[in-house]
Each structure stands twice: as structure tokens, then as C-alpha cells.
Amino acid sequence: MSLLPRDWFHNDHPFNDFFHLSKDFQQSFFQPKIDVTEKKDHIEVLAELPGVKKEDIDLSLQNGVITLSAKIEESTSSEEDKVIRKERRTGSIERSFSVGKGVSEKDISASFKDGLLKLCFPKTTAADEDTKKISLD
């Protein structure tokens, strides 16, 4: 006799529970993974973008924030193909991070090779920023 209940009629898809991912873990796939490294005179950001084409990447700078967005295209399969499981994501991904308001688009270098996006921009200090102090009551 088993101490754990088992639904003997629920064996149609035995791997559904095994491959089930939590909502938080699934959502992390839509943000590219990045490494940020401080060099002597600049900051380097490496972003993983596997399966993304160079022409599908968009970089924008607004108010000291770089926004990286990209499209991941769905692979095509014919009508007679039966997809057993589909885990690879398709759609749009986006990631934003601050570079400082003193940095312009001319200060940023970007390259993309083998699914890895590399951004370099100069370091900024707190004195470079237009920081406003807020007094406490």
C-alpha cells in the first residue's frame, strides 16, 4: 500500500510534472543574462543573446538608461510535424540598465558576435550626475 495518492489514469503525459518550471524561473528567460565588469577607465557589459540575429537587436539610450531589446523568431515546423514539447522561447526580450546621464550614444561602443553582445562605456562619478539632495523632516 502506498502512502502517497496516485492517479493511475493521469499517465498520458508523464513528463509534464518533471519539466514544469516555476513562473519566476520561466520569466527569467525573457531577460538576457548579463555580466558587468569595471575596467580601468570604462565599464564593460556582456549580454547573452543566443539565437538572436544582429538585425533583430535594438539598443537605445534615454536619460542615462540603455535599453536592450531583441526579437527571437520562432522556428518553423511543417503541418505534419507533431511537436512533443516546446521549451525554447520566442518573442521579445528586454533589459535596461543605467549608464549615467553624462554618457552619450557617441561614448558607447557595441559589438555582437556568436550570440554575445558587448557594450563599453566610460565610467561616471557621482559628481558627473545631476544629483539632488532631499531633506528629511
Write a brief caption for the model.
This is Hsp20/alpha crystallin family protein. This protein is mainly beta.
Strand composition percent: 25-35%
Number of helices: 1
Overall pLDDT confidence: 77
CA-CA gap between termini: 68 Å
Description:
With 137 residues, the chain is mainly β. The protein has a domain at 30-74 and 90-125: Immunoglobulin-like. 4% of the residues lie in helices and 34% in strands. It is built from one helix and seven strands. It has a four-stranded antiparallel beta sheet with strand order 1-2-7-6, with no helix packed on it. Strands 3-4-5 form a three-stranded antiparallel beta sheet, with no helix packed on it. β3 and β4 (65-72) form a beta hairpin. The longest helix is centred in the first third of the chain and has 6 residues, at 23-28. The chain is elongated.
Features of the shown structure:
A-crystallin/Hsp20_dom, Small_HSP, 137 residues, Immunoglobulin-like, four-stranded antiparallel sheet, 1 helix, Hsp20/alpha crystallin family protein, HSP20-like_chaperone, 4% helix
Secondary-structure map:
Blueprint: H1 23-28, E1 34-38, E2 42-48, E3 57-62, E4 65-72, E5 91-98, E6 109-113, E7 116-122
Antiparallel strand pairs: 1-2, 2-7, 3-4, 4-5, 6-7
Domain SHSP: 25-137
Protein name: Hsp20/alpha crystallin family protein
InterPro entries: A-crystallin/Hsp20_dom, HSP20-like_chaperone, Small_HSP
